[in-house]
């Protein structure tokens, strides 16, 4: 089995604003420290789908193209707290090729962390790599 190179992405409050505009998700837990605290969060958090998208980006970079991903799923394990500073939060995505499954797809298990804590659980992607014929393995 082969290990994928770890990819790191920085998320700032400005990124949250841009993502809110693109996604239409203006929930105040993604921009207001006061509201985040009122609902029991440790601070403003990144959109879960943004975190998932960054993990997907890591897979597509490794695979060499976005359309190589045929299936992708995660469970949200813990929020990514994004401080109100110029540094933001750092999300690391590591992967391990677990083998070829029926249909000739390559299974990749991901480890997605922030501040040393796993933020996505059961993160798994299936990709069709160049040269895959689609025949069962």
From TrEMBL:
It comes from the Bacteria. Residues 7-98 form the MaoC-like domain. Gene3D superfamilies: Hotdog Thioesterase (3.10.129.10). It holds the Pfam family MaoC_dehydratas. SUPFAM superfamilies: Thioesterase/thiol ester dehydrase-isomerase. Belongs to the enoyl-CoA hydratase/isomerase family. This is MaoC family dehydratase. It comes from Pilimelia columellifera subsp. columellifera.
């Amino acid at each position: 089995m082969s290990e994928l190179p770890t990819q790191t992405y920085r998320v700032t409050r400005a990124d949250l604003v841009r993502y809110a505009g693109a996604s239409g998700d203006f929930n105040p837990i993604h921009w207001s420290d006061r509201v985040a605290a009122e609902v029991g969060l440790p601070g403003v958090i990144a959109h879960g789908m943004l975190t998932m998208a960054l993990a997907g980006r890591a897979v597509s970079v490794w695979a060499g193209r976005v359309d190589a991903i045929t299936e992708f799923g995660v469970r949200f394990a813990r929020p990514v707290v994004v401080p109100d500073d110029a540094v933001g939060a750092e999300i690391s995505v590591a992967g391990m090729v677990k083998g070829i499954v029926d249909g000739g797809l390559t299974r990749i298990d991901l480890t997605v962390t922030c501040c040393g804590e796993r933020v996505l659980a059961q993160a798994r992607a299936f990709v069709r790599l160049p040269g895959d014929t689609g025949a069962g393995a």
